[in-house]
Design goal:
- The protein has a seven-stranded mixed beta sheet with strand order 6-5-4-7-8-13-10, sandwiched between helices. A four-stranded antiparallel beta sheet has the order 1-2-3-9, with no helix packed on it. Strands 11-12 form a two-stranded antiparallel ribbon.
- It has one domain (about 15-285): 3-Layer(aba) Sandwich (Rossmann fold).
- The longest helix has 15 residues, at about 75-85.
- With about 290 residues, the chain is an alpha/beta fold.
- Helix 10 runs antiparallel to helix 11 (about 255-265).
- The radius of gyration is 18 Å and the shape is globular.
- Strand 7 (about 150-155), helix 7 (about 165-175) and strand 8 form a beta-alpha-beta unit.
- About 40% of the residues are buried.
- It has helices spanning about 45-60, 65-70, 75-85, 105-110, 125-130, 140-145, 165-175, 195-200, 215-225, 240-250, 255-265; strands spanning about 15-20, 25-30, 35-40, 95-100, 115-120, 135-140, 150-155, 175-190, 210, 230-235, 235-240, 270-275, 280-285.
- The chain has eleven helices and 13 strands.
Length: about 290
């Protein structure tokens, strides 16, 4: 994989934007199409091995607290139910494939409406999903060569920014969708005030994020991959006050620790918060 070549337009001309230990290489921007991506050099790595390595790196940088993440399941399930409710505005049933299905919360929420299948690159997460009764394959969508379509819906919630080639993933999704099938994706949006103000401390800079789309670049990628966008908007999600305090540490570690201690003293760590910071977008498109 040539990580100096723009996955969107194919150009090799980039401008350096910033460098931070939170990313696997320097953040660059394509001079031709303005796609932001991480320039990484290295041998091809299987998706599951890469996920293992980058997860370990996030722990080393103290960007993820495993104890907090383990206690967040009720809020992940709530977020999954809300995503399914939103999806039902566009499609009412059929076969659903989730790419990047993690431990299966969305698929479990969707199984009352859809026949479900998940793909997850992280071995441990896909094992959890299968133990919960979810039909989930370990690997990436290009590696697995799925032949169980066509699907009525393909979902990529916080997945497209992780993969080596978003274009290849969307090309395969287009192949697997039925005519007029629905694609939904959710991903960080780099054209926002937080990136401009915080730079390398922006919360979306973590080791396993490789691509950072603006509205313009994600629209172009979808259009060139054979999709027609039907809806695009900024979205937030429900989370515990505990997770919010932990995530504050990505901006300022000391502040995160102070807020975490305060939330426990006040007994509000399990309170549900709903935040929309304007730096995540959800897009619905049709084949």
């Amino acid at each position: 994989m040539d990580f100096d070549r723009c996955d969107l337009c194919g150009a090799h001309a980039t401008d350096f934007i910033l460098s931070t230990p939170r990313l696997e290489g320097p953040l660059v921007r394509c001079r031709e199409c303005s796609l932001y991506f991480v320039s990484v050099n290295g041998a091809k790595t299987e998706a599951s091995d890469l996920m293992d390595r980058l997860s370990e790196r996030a722990l080393e940088l103290d960007l993820v607290d495993p104890n907090v993440e383990q206690r967040e399941r009720p809020w992940r399930e709530l977020a999954a139910r809300e995503r399914v409710e939103d999806l039902l505005r566009f499609v009412k049933g059929g076969k659903l494939l989730e790419v990047g299905s993690s431990t299966g919360e969305l698929l479990l929420a969707a199984q009352g409406y859809f026949d479900i299948l998940g793909i997850e690159a992280d071995r441990a997460s896909s094992d959890v999903a299968r133990n919960r009764g979810v039909d989930c394959l370990t690997g990436s969508i290009p590696e697995l060569q799925i032949d169980r379509g066509p699907f009525d819906v393909i979902a990529l919630y916080h997945t497209i920014e992780h993969v080596p080639s978003p274009r290849k993933v969307l090309t395969e999704a287009h192949r697997l969708l039925k005519h007029d099938g629905c694609l939904v994706l959710e991903t960080p949006k780099i054209d926002n005030v937080w990136f401009r103000v915080l730079g390398p401390r922006w919360r979306q800079f973590i080791p396993d994020h490789r691509y950072f789309f603006s509205k313009e670049t994600i629209l172009r990628l979808l259009r060139e991959s054979g999709f027609e966008v039907k809806d695009m908007r900024s979205v937030g999600k429900a989370m515990s006050a505990r997770l919010f305090a932990s995530r504050l540490g990505r901006y300022h570690r000391g502040l995160g620790h102070v807020v975490t201690r305060a939330s426990y003293r006040l007994g509000i760590e399990d309170r549900t918060l709903r935040l929309n910071l304007g730096d995540v977008m959800r897009v619905y498109a049709r084949k």
